[in-house]
Design a protein that fits this description.
There is one protein chain. By secondary structure, the chain is of the alpha/beta class. Helix content is about 30%, strand content about 20%. It has helices at about 25-30, 45-50, 85-100, 110-115, 125-130, 160-165, 225-245; strands spanning about 5-10, 35-40, 55-60, 105, 120, 150-155, 170, 180, 185-190, 200-205, 210-215. Strands 2-1-3-4-11-10-9-6-7 form a nine-stranded mixed β-sheet, sandwiched between helices. Strand 9 and strand 10 (about 200-205) form a beta hairpin. Helix 3 crosses helix 4. It is globular and about 55 Å long.
């Protein structure tokens, strides 16, 4: 009997789906891990029912969440995503948690996950977050490509991500001007950079897989084992769900 390939929904901006390069790196990373990526742009009136037909969810990177959603303030550096995308992804993050749908959230996706569950964001790290009076940039320096690891993230012992990576420290890339500020109650910080920015969260409840990371593992899967491990874990849990769905009476 052939193995069931799990369906992974990737939330997407409907206006950009005709561009072949749109979300290509995310789709490719899911495929390499053994999943079947499908762009999710519109759910009609019943998002819960739509997500029930998938085996996993990927919330990808992109433009900024509207600060009004989490009680923040507009900032000159904020570049807002379309409101329809905010609405889709915030609702999807909430439903995925309720349904225990295996979920990986990346960069903006991790921010969406946090906001969806009641957390807040730093609207602009260089302007607002100054530990010991130092201004920070969480961007790749010009001599490094998006595939290069440029800074360490330290993980809490005993967290799901620490167990997955088998290490207390993982080197990651970095391309974000916003970050998680107040962490939602239903999430726990799993990893931080050494300047104090939370760069990984996971569900407080014992869910199958509900994880957000601030960096971009989809850009590093060709050369980085921890990046591959994240997508493999998503697909592995989605595969279990796919097999359970296949066993249900039609």
């Amino acid at each position: 009997m052939d193995a069931i390939k799990p369906r992974i929904a990737i939330t997407a901006d409907a206006a950009r789906t005709e561009k072949p390069e749109y979300l290509r790196s995310y789709r490719r990373a899911v495929e390499q891990a053994g999943g079947e990526p499908e762009l999710l742009t519109s759910t009609g009136s019943d998002l819960e029912a739509t997500l029930q037909n998938f085996d996993g969810l990927l919330l990808p990177g992109g433009a900024d969440v509207d600060p009004a959603v989490y009680g923040g303030r507009d900032h000159p550096k904020v570049y807002k995503a379309p409101s329809a995308l905010d609405e889709l992804e915030l609702a999807a993050a909430r439903w995925a948690k309720r349904l225990d749908l295996p979920t990986l959230a990346i960069c903006r996706g991790a921010q969406v996950m946090n906001v969806a569950l009641g957390g807040t964001l730093w609207e602009d790290i260089p302007d607002q977050y100054e530990p010991q009076g130092r201004k920070l940039q969480h961007q790749q320096t010009p001599e490094h490509s998006r595939q290069d690891p440029t800074h360490p993230v330290d993980f809490q012992s005993g967290t799901r991500l620490h167990d997955l990576f088998g290490s207390l420290t993982v080197l990651t890339n970095s391309r974000h001007h916003q970050a998680l500020r107040r962490i939602a109650h239903d999430l726990v910080p799993a990893g931080k950079t050494r300047d104090g920015i939370v760069e990984a969260v996971e569900a407080r409840e014992n869910l199958s897989f509900y994880v957000g990371v601030q960096w971009h593992p989809e850009d590093m899967v060709d050369r980085d084992e921890p990046s591959r491990a994240l997508f493999r874990e998503l697909v592995a849990h989605a595969s279990l769900r796919a097999r359970r769905r296949a066993a249900l009476p039609s």
